[in-house]
């Protein structure tokens, strides 16, 4: 926004008394009101479409009230006045190629524009009066206008389309009374055209989609230029040889919006001249037109920039969990939270169906988030696909973070077919379930009964339930229970992903083998424990916590930084083989 603001229309926060014409976009509370005051700068316009350029639409200037919770989409309509060349449909692509550098070239707007009535059925073309040298051009023009109206099914006065029946009747009456076209073509005009579908498909594949059909933009012809300029350029012959068939508009670069043909760059003139020389039908017209860009046209950040007060950071990223967009709004955004959410929803549909904001930092035992639904449907049950595995999660009751996907992948890549994995804080199974595809067996545990329910459901969903044994107990008790049974012999890796406190659970490994003979088939698993650190030396800090929990003087640890979760706060993963001295220690801590 600030980039644009000093160029043309400058956003300011001003009093409500401003002329309504310039208000933008919502006005319920003065404190929330952002206005764009036209600032007629002499500085050159920035290139390309912008919400700070163009004019608001008529309807926008008339309806001013906008509730803070309701986004007024009309406020984002912008009208741009442009010049265009009307050219024969058959030649528009060739001309587009040759004039490309001088065409509009705006994102998501086709240089070749369609307007209603620009197509003439090929069977009707011969009916149109052909230009003859010396003909009464005025009369010919009148006949052409009348005929065009009828061909395109338009009523005379207001230009509304007639129903097919009325159209046919009207056509029959008019043609009979005037008698200048043969009636035998009438049936063809009114009968549904068998080739219509095919033609539509062809048109779409050629990229000549009718402007306005996509809901992003629409082009209308405002006025046909008097052809003086073109006649000077292309010669007298041009004036007598007006176009008589299907046409398209080539939208010219915005710099040429109010220029006449004489002021066009030589490069354009040369192309037009050459075209006129080689063409059997001299068929160019310069027209003034109106390009309207609607709310749907603008990208999410463009709308948010325009919506929020100047200088406010625009929330441009969000985490996605299935169909849910998860915002992390700052306090300054909160007065605009519903407007922001609506824009996020609109601009990311259909992928996103629900927009939520985190109300509080994760503090509860089950690590679930306090979420407020701001837009879309209110279901927080969604399906996430990660590494080809489907997970059902209910964000209201279980923990999920897609941000740990890469870290999970790293751990998984270290697992082999001979492994037995013990996932102490498994959640709904984002590690346990893909691990089950690789390893011999997974023992997965979580304290949250909802997480365990989804873990079981996800195991079945991915047909891996036979390889996963699910437990619902406290992590320390789980470790002890596993190592009290024979299954302990097979456990090769232990994963402890509860970064806020997992290190403090390591004491559960003390003395797990104290009652077993030191010689024999005991397995000392590789433990992967996660933790946070805000210390200046996070590795040292986390290592210390591990050492203290294990009551060991030295532990050989492989330490990695996983990601920065907040400024100055690292998430780390420490991997180490359970020391024998810990497993056989006599000072076990009782749960
Ligand atoms: C940070 S989440 C990680 C879940 C999962 N590993 C993942 O990556 O999505 C931590 C999980 O530990 C569970 N949890 C919290 N305290 C626990 C405890 N004392 N014993 C067992 N699980 C616990 C929570 O319910 C939560 O599902």
Automatic annotation (TrEMBL):
Lipid biosynthesis keyword on record: no
Highest taxon, organism lineage: Eukaryota
Region (Disordered): 47-68, 191-210
GO biological process: mitochondrial tRNA methylation
Known EC number: 2.1.1.228
Chemical reaction(s) catalysed: guanosine(37) in tRNA + S-adenosyl-L-methionine = N(1)-methylguanosine(37) in tRNA + S-adenosyl-L-homocysteine + H(+)
Compositional bias ranges of the Basic residues kind: 191-200
One Gene Ontology CC term in the entry: nucleus
The protein's role, per its UniProt record: Specifically methylates the N1 position of guanosine-37 in various cytoplasmic and mitochondrial tRNAs. Methylation is not dependent on the nature of the nucleoside 5' of the target nucleoside. This is the first step in the biosynthesis of wybutosine (yW), a modified base adjacent to the anticodon of tRNAs and required for accurate decoding.
HAMAP family: TRM5
Subunit annotation: Monomer.
Protein name as catalogued: tRNA (guanine(37)-N1)-methyltransferase
Top-level taxonomy: Eukaryota, Viridiplantae, Streptophyta, Embryophyta, Tracheophyta
